[in-house]
Hints:
By secondary structure, the protein is of the alpha/beta class. The chain is 44% helix and 17% strand. It has helices at 22-26, 28-37, 57-62, 101-110, 130-133, 144-157, 174-185, 191-200, 253-276, 285-289, 292-311, 316-330, 339-342, 346-364, 371-380, and strands spanning 15-18, 45-49, 69-77, 80-88, 91-96, 114-117, 163-167, 201-203, 206-209, 212-215, 221-223, 228-232, 246-249.
Amino acid sequence: MPLTSVTVLDMTHRILQFGTSRFLQAHADLFVHEARALGQDIGPITIVKTTLGGSRDKRLKAFATAGGFPVKLKGFKSGKLVDETVQVTSVCRALDANVDWLHLKEIFAHETEIVFSNVGETGYDLSAEDQLTLGIADTAPKSFPAKLTALLFHRFMNGARPLLILPTELVSNNGQVLRQLVLDLSKDLGDVFKNWLDQSVTFCDTLVDRIVSEAIDPIGAIGEPYGLWAIKRMAGFLEPLQHPCIVYTDDLQLYLRLKLHILNLGHSFLAEIWKTENFPATETVRGMLQISDIKNRLLELYDTEIIPGFAAHNMEAEAKLYVATTLERFQNPFLNHRMSDIYQNHEYKIERRMIDFIGWVLAANPSAQFPNLKIVITANLHP
């Protein structure tokens, strides 16, 4: 869908974004910037750092600069070379949830219309202290779900305006998982509050797909031209912005399976080779595929196990197209997508990307075989 010019409207601090990651900078923040440039009534964005510690304080301060930050998109898209820089100006301010908690509560209650989040794969983990700190007005709870619950309750007590929440964490059914965590944490906050959550707060499941391989100091990012944000429609849902990389859908499964079991699974397959066969610590995805034996092993995996698995679910054509796009993305000459980054949480990723794939395929074709995947699984996960 092309970007659409609309009449410029007065814009308020409509988006609150939990997370300062380079991914969000080159994904959601960029999309909002481009939509605003054409006059869409979206944003700007207030960024919130949720974790304790000062490792990202420098980044947090830099977000407040009027000039914005650079996002460099480099690589191939549909066979054509892209090398461009966008100066993103959609972020207006940045806060530390553990320092600016009282200010954050007021922004959340009175200004925010949309919430973005990307707090990592373990960002939904709860703390034993969460339930105790929910009712302390001037102290931020420890975990992200508890922070969100406390902020929602404050919003409820100060006008109870509707809210749209668009999480981007790499968690299956992320919106509904986050919603259930909030409901569980709300057990002592009353039925009227829970009814408001059900009726007025929309948690959408979403799926994101863009490789953002490097950060620019102090803020900014280098990513690939390919980008996708698939957002599942919910009852009463209104599309918050239009962008070529955003898809609104009634079913995320097609996008989820393609990304998880082709791109992500391919990454983990290469990471296994990188680790077990002792490739240099600085090796990248592109570098791995410049070794013909490794590239052929990945192609064999796609051709003999992955594409036939999708074919069992009548998705062969979509899988072949996505494999071709994935190989183009893997061989991007500009991105240094490091194997050491991909290898992090390797066992967890094998469960999600490989074991889940096998179970999904066997449900449709009980005779399917997975010799290459089972070698990786056996080497990492023990009964």
